[in-house]
Amino acid sequence: MDKLRALRGLVAIAEHGSLSAAARVQGNSLTATVRLLAALEDELGVRLLNRTTRRLSLTEDGRQYLERARRILADLDEADRMVGDARAEPAGALGITAPVLFGEYHVAPAVTRFLARHPRVQVRLMLLDRVVNLVEEGLDVGVRIGHLQDSTLVALRVGSVRRVVLASPAFLERHRVPRHPRDLAGLPCLCSDNADSGAWSFRDPARGHEFKVGVQGPLQCNLVSARLQACAEGLGFCRVLSYQAAPLLAQGLLRIVLEDFEAQPWPVSITYPSTRWLPTRTRAFVDHMAEELRRTL
Fold this sequence. Notes:
about 300 residues; alpha/beta; 5-stranded mixed beta sheet; 9 helices; about 40% helix; about 25% strand
C-alpha cells in the first residue's frame, strides 16, 4: 500500500464528504479509492469511517488519525517548499534594523556585500537606537545588543560586546590609573543621561558577583560620540560598549582600564519573527550576517 497516497485519500474523503467526490478530485476511480481506504483500515486494525448509504462520518479513531495525517502532509508540503526555495535565487524586499553605530560599523558593510552577491534583493535598512517591534514595523530581521525581552522572536546569538571604561593617555598621566572601580570616586567621569548614569556596574573577579560604583563628573550626555570625544580630549573616564570606542582605541587616543572588573558582556543576536518557514532572502541574509558577525566579534 502507498501510505502517503492513502493519507491524502483519507484527507480528501473527509474534506469532500464522500468517496466518489474524493476519487474525482484526486483523479482516481471510485473502486481504487474504496480499496485504498480499506487497506489503510486493515493495516491500522481500526475503522476510520462509518459508512451508510446516505453519509460518511469519522469514527473517534478516524478523527484523531485524520488530525495527524493533516500535520504529516503539511510538514511534507513545507519540506518540499523549503527545498525548492533553497535552490531559488533570493529575491524581493527585506527589512533590517540595528543600533546606529553598530549598524554603521558592522551591519551596513555586511548588507552591501550581501546585495553584491544577491542583486535581486532590495534592502530597507533602519539604524535606530531603540527596540523596534519587527512585526509592527514590517521588518524581517533585527540585530540586537543585550538580553531580549520579546519571547516571540527567534534569537540566534552570534557574539558579545564588552562594557569598557576608558580614558585618554594624557588624562591617565595627570591622574592615576585606577586599580579598582572604587578608585573612580572623586575622579571626573562622563555619564549618559539614563537612569543608571550615576552608577556603573562591575564584576568582582574573585567572587563573581556584580556591584555598582557611584560616579559623577563634568558632562552628562545621551550621545555616545560626544562622550567619547570628550574622553579622548582628557575630560574624564567614560564607559561605553567596546565596538563604540573601537576607532579611537585603534588610533591610540583612548585606553581601556579596569578590564579585570568588567561586567558580564552583552550578547549580540540576530532576531526574526518566529515562523516555521522563512523566505529564501531572509534565511540567506540571516546566514550571511551570522557568518560575518561571528568572524568579527
